[in-house]
Amino acid sequence: MTRAATPARSRGRRLRAAATAAIGVVVSAFVALRVADLSAPFPDVADRAPASVVSAADGTAMHVGLDADGARRLPFRLADASPHLVHALVAAEDRRFYAHRGVDVRALARAAVACATAGAAVEGGSTITMQAVRWTTRVPRTFAGKALQALRAWQAERRWSKDEILERYLDAVPLPGNLRGVAAACAAWFGKRPADVSADEAALIVSTLPAPTRFDPRRDPAGARARRDRVLDRMREEGTLDAAACAAAKARPVVVDRGGFPDLGGHAWARAGAGRTTVEPGLERAVEALAAQAPAPDGVAVVVVDVRSASVRALVGARRADPSVLDATEAPRSAGSTVKPFLYAHALDAGLVVPTTALLDLPWAAPDWAPRNFDARVHGPVTAAEALATSLNVPAVRLAAALPDGALAATLRRAGLAHVRGADAPGADLALGTDDVTPLELAEAATTLAAGGVHRPLRLLADAPVAAGDRVLSPGACALVTSALADAGRARPAGAPGEGVAWKTGTSSRRRDAWAAGWTQDVVVVVWRGRLDGAPDDTLVGARAAVPLLFDVLALADPAPRPFPPPADVEPLEVCADTGLAPGPTCPERRRDLRPRGAAPLARCRVHVRVELDATTGCVVCARCRGTRPTVRRDVALFPPAWAGWRAETGLAVEALPAHDPACAAPLDPEGAAPEVAAPRDRARLEADAAGGADVVVRVRCADPRDGARVVLDATTERRVPAGEAVLLRVAAGRHVLVAFDARTGRSTRVGFTVEPR
Hints:
18% strand; five-stranded mixed beta sheet
């Protein structure tokens, strides 16, 4: 009898405990409502400091750091989320969510009775709103704590709409591992945005909510599938998923960690730090893939920039876009010939050249330096446009030497090349890119050219304003340079567009760096290839190592480039047909060319001049003798020393200025006399030494003893002979021609000599 009554007494005790629990919940809630300070600020889950997030231009997460609690959390907006996430959450966690005002009294009473009967802490019965409150308010799991949680939920419902509550819940809900918020789970498990998750994926996420650590789908895929399917069944019961869709969703396997956490554009997000960048995720991924496939050597950097806004559209600093790998976009390396477009644009604005101006691709020697072309050949006089397009070194050095000291360096620094030497430093070698630049700097400078000469700092953060910019070069000069570099006749990779792309290559000394910079009307791309240890490599030639990758990236960034329009902001002018300079009265032929509007006056042709000759002797009449005898005028072409020597060697006519009248004791006009070659004498015969050549002493006297001279040997070797001094030339056996030119007047004297072998 006693044993039979024991179960009945136990049931009675459980019923009395349940009643007591229910009364306790009601009384506690009443007391909490009476004493609570409703004016106190409500703790908002959105106020929690989020993890640092770097996103792409379209909002796609590139990298997520850790928040103060060591969790990863991605920004979430309900308007951009799949409705499956809301349907799964409501069906599984709070079916009466849209009917209650924060507290479901029936569910709460049931949970209290169950918990009291079991003798455990208060569990269950929480609404979605109450759970959102619990994450921001630490409350004990007791009757009083549950009552306070209910109060806060009631406050939340007065403050927020249902959609706002759902957004805050889904934004911060704890999930397995260190994930917080469904956006983080969508990215980490499926490689998707919240807008793209399917019904089965949404159900899988929601199925972990009761116990995120215990229900981690990566630990128990079979159990995770059973829990997911129960959520799908509830969605079907609620009418948010039809039977066919439910069956199809249940048929799919549980697969997580397919996409991994977002880590796009490692070098870009490392530079940005936090916030929304200007990087375009699709382009960034495609460029990263190209960089990863690039052939040896190991170093690669690619920068893609929008011309109008100077925004970085893609940035890759290594084969693997990981911030732990050296970012080559920030590494200063020798620029090579990539600076030549800026030299020619500056010279156009300074009035030194127009596109058809003749520049001498003939040997040029400084006191301790003799530049040579990449192909080690000389090509004679070439137009400025041709010299730029074919990247000839010697004409570039001659042109840079004609600029004031520091002028080119100042232009380069203003265009964005911050590592270039100081603006007051001389050096014609700068035209060959002997100074360092970084790929980011070169991209900024190339954008200056593509934008018509207006410099803007590169933008990596979307919130950074687009700078108004500072004018560095005229739009006309940039247009003429672009026209020369976009010439359809230039060799380019197979499949590359025939128009609409201008590009320039660069190869540093000893082949340590290969560069290519290209631009269309809309985009700029810079490519650097090299060895990370800085060692030379014979494969590092810009045209071979960098240009193919340049055009591959251009095809992604601007697949159908618009043809460049005819150069704008230019004006026509008449130039000498021989020199391409402003014609003088004696220039025999002229042609039309273009110059930047507003450029400095074009330098005048000094080749074609008019001289007075004695009508009887034909000698030059100087200023002292003019008016004392009959004279005739004659127009002559006096080419510069190296040019005249080249013409003579190639069989072209070279006019020699007649000698000064010997009857005039001392010409007052230094232009009246040609230099005298004191050594070697004309028609001299010298003996070669044992090595098969001879050291020839060259000494020249000019009309003005203070003037030096330039001598050209065999139209290939040019040296300066200072006044009163001699130079030593090493000459091979054979016949030779030496032309000496007065450094001030350009008058010349020609001698021939022979070095006879032993």
